[in-house]
Amino acid sequence: MDCYACDQEAIDRCSRCGSPFCRDHGGDPSVGSGQALCADCLDPSNALPSGTVFRGSILALLLASVLALWLLVRPPSLPGESPQVSQPRPSPFSTPVLPSPSATPARGHTPTPVQPTPSPSPPPAFLEYVVKEGDTLTGIAQELAPAGVEPFAFAQQIAAANGIDFTNPLVRPGDVLVIPILPTAAPTPTPTPGVGPTPTSAAAHPSPSPTPTPTPSGPITYTVVEGDTLLGIAQELAPAGVEPFAFAQQIAELNGIDFNNPLINPGQKLLIPQ
C-alpha cells in the first residue's frame, strides 16, 4: 500500500480521512493505532471550518439575538392570562376647570377652557450669612434682627434653623448660617385729630392710683457650673417681664464680660442684678 502523496510504502491510515501515509507525510505512529493523522489533516488551514459553516453560524447567532430582544420587549402571556390595556391615570395635581352652571354654551360652539394663571413663586424664606472672625450668635442676631423682633428670640430662631445648641452656640469663621426672613409688621395707623370718640372728663373716669415701685435689692452671686453659658444663666435667672437677651447684657456689663464673646469658666463667681 503506497502513500497518498508519494510512492513510498504507507505505514498507517489517517484516523480522520482514511488516506494511507508514509513516515514523511503523516503523524508519528507511536501515538497508537487509529489516532495518527496524515499531513493534510495536520495542516492548520484544513482544521478551520468552511465558509458556509461560518456564515451559517453567524446568521444563527443573529437570529437568536433578535428573538431574545423580542422576548424581553414583548414577553408572552401565560396560559389563562388576558392582555391588559394600561389606562392613563389622571395627575393628582391637575384640576379640571368646570363650566359655570348658569352659563350655557351656544349650540354648535365649543367652549374654550380657561387656563389658570400661574401664581408667582414666593421669595425665599431664608438668606445665607458667612461667619467672620469674632462673630457670635448673639452678635449676629443683634445685627440682623428685623425691626420689632427681640435679638434674643431671633438668636433662638437662627439656632433652630441651623441645628445649633442655643445654650452653647459655637460658630466658627467660614461657617454658612441660614438666617430666617421674618415678615415685616404692618405699621400702626396714626389716629387723625378730630376723628373718633370725644374724650371724657377726668372726673367721669378717675385715673388709677400709681403702684409703688419696689426698691431693687443688691446683686446676688452665682457660681458657674460645667456647661453654663451666659445666655443660659440669663434665661434661667431673668426676672419676670425682663427679656433674657437684655438680662444677659446686664450680667455681662456688671461683671466686665465682653457680651459678643462671653467666656465664662466653671467655678467663676458672677454678680446677678436684681
Q: Provide mean pLDDT, rounded.
A: 76
Please work out how many helical segments DSSP would assign.
7
Structural category is alpha+beta
* Major β-sheet annotation: 2 strands, antiparallel
CATH superfamily of the domain at 126-180: LysM domain
> How big a fraction of the residues is strand?
5-15%
Q: Please give the number of β-strands.
A: 6
The strand order across the widest sheet is: 1-2
Unreliable stretches covering 5 or more consecutive residues: 199-204
Distance between the termini: 133 Å
Shape-level CATH architecture of the domain at 126-180: Roll
CATH hierarchy, class of the domain at 126-180: Alpha Beta
How would you characterize the overall build of this protein?
- With 274 residues, this protein is of the alpha+beta class.
- Among the domains are: 36 residues, no CATH class; 55 residues, Membrane-bound Lytic Murein Transglycosylase D, Chain A (Roll), CATH 3.10.350; 53 residues, Membrane-bound Lytic Murein Transglycosylase D, Chain A (Roll), CATH 3.10.350.10.
- 26% of the residues lie in helices and 8% in strands.
- The protein is built from seven helices and six strands; from the N terminus they run E-E-H-H-H-E-H-H-E-E-H-H-E.
- The strands form three sheets. A two-stranded antiparallel ribbon has the order 1-2. A two-stranded antiparallel ribbon has the order 3-4.
- About 2% of the residues have low confidence.
